[in-house]
């Protein structure tokens, strides 16, 4: 356990704050110009964190024209769903209509390995890896906003999540 002398040497600002708090408590009318250390007020948890546990808000599409398909892959479905939720919230705050998370078929790969490096062929071990996939579709958004959204997701993607974006661009047919 730390002694008080080590604590004072480690944090002199804490000592100054406690001294100023003690002096203002003893002589409150005399020292009105000194800084008073105020503790943060407790906030009810349901008020502050209620938006985190709700379904992400959505912007309604106007013309229903797909602009980008984002396919995410990962080995952990909980992490994949969390990142899909993060991507949907980011799309909402950028003003882009985003579809709900569409679960794609899970790809299972299995292989067998011999346990021993020598002659024991009958002693084998089976392994399995499941790749989970999710799809998000962005509709009616400007290509620059979609590009910025994809860069933001790439910067904040956790380890173990792979993304493949298919951007759909429309051009007008001009006369030659």
Automatic annotation (TrEMBL):
Gene Ontology CC: ribonucleoprotein complex; ribosome
Keyword tRNA-binding set for record: no
Protein keywords: Ribonucleoprotein, Ribosomal protein
Domain Small ribosomal subunit protein uS10 residue range list: 69-166
InterPro entries (alphabetical): Ribosomal_uS10, Ribosomal_uS10_dom, Ribosomal_uS10_dom_sf
GO BP terms: translation
Gene Ontology MF annotations: structural constituent of ribosome
SUPFAM superfamilies assigned to the protein according to its UniProt record, in alphabetical order: Ribosomal protein S10 (SSF54999)
A UniProt-annotated Pfam family: Ribosomal_S10
Transmembrane segments: none
Record family assignment: Belongs to the universal ribosomal protein uS10 family.
PANTHER family (UniProt xref): 30S RIBOSOMAL PROTEIN S10 FAMILY MEMBER (PTHR11700)
Protein name: Small ribosomal subunit protein uS10m
